[in-house]
Amino acid sequence: MTNVVLSSFPPLSNKHAKILIIGSMPGGESLRLQQYYAHPRNAFWYIITQLLGSDDDIHYEQKIALLKKKNIAIWDVLMSCEREGSLDTAIRNDSIVINDFAEFYATHPQIKTLYFNGAKAEQEYKKRVIPTLAPHLQSMPSYRLPSSSPAMARLTKEEKLKHWSIILEPLTS
C-alpha cells in the first residue's frame, strides 16, 4: 500500500488565546469529518469539556466556541505529511511539512504556554519548529501531556484528565 498525502486544518483560535494545545496531525476520522479530534474514542473533547465545566455531548461548533471563550487555541505541528492510517508512527519523516508557527505567534501574541498532545507533537515541534522561531519564542514554557488518542491506552480517560488539568493554570492568571 502507498502512503497518502494528508493536510491538516487551520488553527482554532481567537486573538486573545493564552495557551496553545499542539497535536501532530489529524487522524483519519478527523480528516474525514473535517473536525479536530473526531474519533469517538479520542479523549480530547471529554477532557476539555470536563476541565471547562461543560457537557461533553455538545455539538462540535459549541466545543469550538467553548475553546475560544476560554482563550484556548489548538493546532497541529504538521501542515502535511504522508501516512497510511492514523498512527503517528506511520508518518513518513521525509514527507513532513510544518505549519508556520512564527506567523501564528505574530498574530497571537498573548500565547505564553504550549501543551503538546502526545510525544510526537512535542518531538516534531522541538526538532522542526523551534529552530525556525525567534529566540524569545524558542523558550516559551511547554509541557507534554499524555496523548488523548485511543492509541495511548496505558491511561484511562479519567487519568488523562488529571494530567491535563495543568492547562487551567495559565488561564486563571
Average pLDDT confidence is 94
Count of discrete alpha- or pi-helical segments spanning 4 or more residues? 7
Order of helices and strands: EEHHHEEEHEHHEH
CATH superfamily membership, which one?
Uracil-DNA glycosylase-like domain
Instruction: Provide the helix percentage.
Output: 25-40%
Biggest sheet: strand arrangement: 3-2-6-7
The CATH topology is Uracil-DNA Glycosylase, subunit E
Q: Mind telling me which CATH architecture this is? A: 3-Layer(aba) Sandwich
Rounded to the nearest angstrom, the radius of gyration is 15 Å
Structural class given helices, strands, pairing?
Answer: alpha/beta
Overall domain count: 1
Oligomeric state of shown chains = single chain
Strand content: 15-25%
CATH class: Alpha Beta
Strand elements, count: 7
The N- to C-terminal Cα distance equals 50 Å
**How does the major sheet shape up?**
4 strands, parallel
Shape verdict: globular
- Poorly predicted ranges: none
